[in-house]
Design goal:
This protein is of the alpha/beta class. The chain has one domain: Rossmann fold, CATH 3.40.50.720. The protein is built from 8 helices and 7 strands, in the order E-H-E-H-H-E-H-E-H-E-H-E-H-H-E. Strands 3-2-1-4-5-6-7 form a 7-stranded parallel beta sheet, with helices on both faces. Helix 4 packs parallel to helix 5. The longest helix is centred in the middle third of the chain and has 29 residues. The two termini are about 20 Å apart. About 45% of the residues are buried. The N terminus is likely disordered.
Amino acid sequence: MAGAKGLEIHRDRVMIVTGGTGGLGQAVTRKLLDGGATVIATYLNQDEADRLAASTSSDQRQRLNLTLVDVTNPSSVNALVAHVLESHGRIDGLVNVVGGYQYRPFLEISPADWQRQLQLNLDTTFLVTRAVLKPMVEAGYGRIVSVGSQSAMAAAPFAAHYNAAKAAVASLMATLSHEFGPNITANTVLPGTIDTLANRQAMPEADTSQWVSPETIAHMISRLLEASNVTSGQHIPVTRNR
């Protein structure tokens, strides 16, 4: 039973999940709610937010704060963090889920394409992580997990800008683990192709048997957010369903 005693490994923790209503973000949000956390889930798509809210239990809805935020905008990010601190007094964990993918041969990548992939995948991670780190440092505690990609370490063709951005995310987390550890941990999960509705619609002919479920990735993220976790600076592949 979700939220049952003994499973609430995040009880009384305050977590931000960027893109917390999307295909992967929704699974992460649910997992943290099941673990007893208060979750501030950012979103841009109102329909996704409404569906998530409608599918949670009454107890979970009391701990779910759906917040419309453009995490590419520094002012909006700073306002989000200020609101969370005012409402809850602290930020214990951050999951950077927001990102974007574009299939494009290298010679067809425009400067605008390049900048957009950096903005969606790297800049968002930088902005939100920077904003939460100050209160984490003041509290002497924090857990940060960013969603990278398997292609960041084993690059696939036709997405050089996406691969480069995700590799930079992994490097950023490793750097922060040294700069702010040991009380603040920073890790990157590296999923293979995620089995979401959007990916199935984008690749209708693909063999989905080796795709990884959002729930499997959410499970790994949840473990990395545990208070007792000492893993930091790691790039963790998540390519098989548990």
